[in-house]
Specification:
Belongs to the short-chain dehydrogenases/reductases (SDR) family. It contains 8 helices and 7 strands, in the order E-H-E-H-E-H-E-H-E-H-E-H-H-H-E. With about 260 residues, the chain is of the alpha/beta class. The termini are far apart.
Length: about 260
Amino acid sequence: MGVQEGKVALVTGGRGGIGRAIVDRLQREGAAVYAADLSEGGSLNDAERGGSNFVRLDVTSESDVIAAMQQVQKDQGKLDILVNAAGIEIEKTIEDTSLEEWNRSFAVNVTGTFLTSKYALPLMRAAASGGSCASLINFGSYDGFIADPGLAAYCATKGAVHALTRAMACDHGPEGIRVNAICPGYIDTPMLQSFFTGDGSGGDGKTIDQLQQAVRDVHPMRSYGTPEDIANLVNWLASDEARYASGQLWVLDGGLSAQVQQMRL
């Protein structure tokens, strides 16, 4: 029996790199999982979907979010776990970022987190009424503490998610709802691969392999993370073992932000 047996989970961005790993892990641990995303991912076969339920969801659309939560209400009557993993990244300085791009970044990364959390709360209260806490997990970033070059809007949105996480933890802890944020560093996802080819990487003519190795080398652990590393932390934060964990920003970056980069020789 898995640690999430009998629980109901919804994961936004559930067909993306990190989101898919989270969906798979929670499903293996016994939860009934809803993978919410813009598309189901036509290349996935039934085994790769892991038996999860797909919900089409644009996190910037209030009507989409309401419909998704209504479906969970109809099917399950509660929601024990909400993971806000949907996100986008724009690789530009503020000077090069258009107002449309700025607003789009905040719409997905911040407003999307606000909307899904807002409309999930009644279902999460229902889950918490059984005596165990419900768990709401947002996605910040180590870029919400420090900054990579050329990611101004992304850094700003993740700082906002960090502050929102703390506020929600204070507001809804008395209702039996724990709220935390996971703050990844470099994780091997399609978003990271696009960063290697974008202006933000500071590539200076290096090959993709050289850039990837340079990123590994700058970490104390000499590697970047995998979606499964993130899913492991999500699984713990969503479990009853983490009953006293709330209002925290959990950095998972292989020690990257623990060191002073200028001192590396």
